[in-house]
Amino acid sequence: MTSKVSNLVPPNPTADRLATPGHVDERLPMPLYHQVYLILRNKILTGEYGFGALLPSEQETSETFGVSRITAKRALNDLAGDGLVLRERGRGTKVVFHAPTPPVKANVEGLLENLLAMGLETEVSLLAFEYVRPTDVVSRTLCCDETALVQRAVRVRLLEKEPFSYLVTHVPDWVGRSYSRGDLAERPLLTLLERSGVVISRAEQTISATLADVEVSAALGLELGSPLLKIDRVVYDQSERPVEYITALYRPDRYQHRMMLSRVGSESARSWLMAGE
Predict the structure, then answer these.
(1) According to CATH, where is 1.10.10.10 located in the chain?
(2) Are 5 and 52 within 8 A, CB to CB?
(3) CATH 3.40.1410.10 in the chain, residues?
(4) Model confidence, pTM
(5) DSSP-assigned states of every residue in the chain
(6) How would residue 100 be classed by pLDDT, with cut points 50, 70 and 90?
């Protein structure tokens, strides 16, 4: 993954290297060195200390957090052990971690437009493309007979060569026959649906959480059981026929789902309403 290296050296390099005072508490059931480690680790992961930046020295870290130099040294050594920094005698502790690409953000409003834009701005790896008998859930969702065929596709979407979503789509047979495996590997599915003459009207979706199984964790580069954002979405045409059923699993560190809410109602019964409703 690529990352731009910012110029982190202002007129006063020493002052720049001093960390923002953190909060360590001896009353917590956690060693002080680990509290310091977590604070510095967060600053690195969020980009406050960018790639190539010098972290405070052991002495500066000790003074900043009000801990012993031995405690500060252990915290810095643990960061080095995680591969976040490189410690060199006489040169200090340098950040070698590249902050990840900012998470993809998608709004609920303008849903279909956002999905199309996402498909155009990212890359896709097509893992499966087949015609199968629908499961009970797929059959009910697409309003098709259990003996009918549906097209099932599995894709991993990537941003800057890094995977962030695992997509399983089912479409009715009559829709799937309008495009090829090669088409789906190169173009967003919604674009292919519209190319086939389907006039998309609306979509319904539910958002929940789940855990990565063996297949998904391998595809997204995660540990087995890692938390994922799950979105189930059904797309309808202008005749209210379901033309696509998708289950999308997102890495929460690389995807954010944003909603715009408005405060409505009388003073005695005010509530939040999603924009556009």
Answers:
(1) 13-95
(2) yes
(3) 104-262
(4) 0.60
(5) ---PPP----S-HHHHHSPPP----TTSSS-HHHHHHHHHHHHHHTTSS-TTPBPPPHHHHHHHHT--HHHHHHHHHHHHHTTSEEEETTTEEEE-PPPPPPPEEEESTTHHHHHHHHHHHSEEEEEEEEEEPPPHHHHHHHT--TTS-EEEEEEEEEETTEEEEEEEEEEEHHHHTTS-HHHHHHS-HHHHHHHTT--EEEEEEEEEEEE--HHHHHHHT--TT-EEEEEEEEEEETTS-EEEEEEEEE-TTTEEEE--EEEES-TTS-EEEETT-
(6) low
- Residue 1: pLDDT over 70: no
User: For residue range 102-139, what is the model confidence (pLDDT) as tens digits?
Assistant: 555 555 444 444 544 555 567 889 999 999 999 999 99
CA distances from 115 to 51, 124, 219, 248 (A): 32, 13, 21, 12
Distance CA 85, CA 87 (A): 6
Query: What superfamily would CATH give domain 104-262?
Result: Chorismate lyase-like (3.40.1410.10)
Q: 260: which 2 tokens?
A: 């715009």
Token pair in block for residue 74: 């252990």
CATH 3.40.50.1460 fits 13-95, yes or no: no
Q: Hunting for tokens 């715009």 — which residue is that? A: 260
Q: How far apart are the first and last CA of the chain?
A: 39
Average of per-residue pLDDT across 223-236? 91
**Residue 95 scores a pLDDT above 60:** yes
Reference 206, options 166, 237, 246; nearest CA is: 246
pLDDT higher at 99 or 20: 99
pLDDT in tens, 14-58: 333 333 345 788 888 889 999 999 899 888 887 788 888 999 999
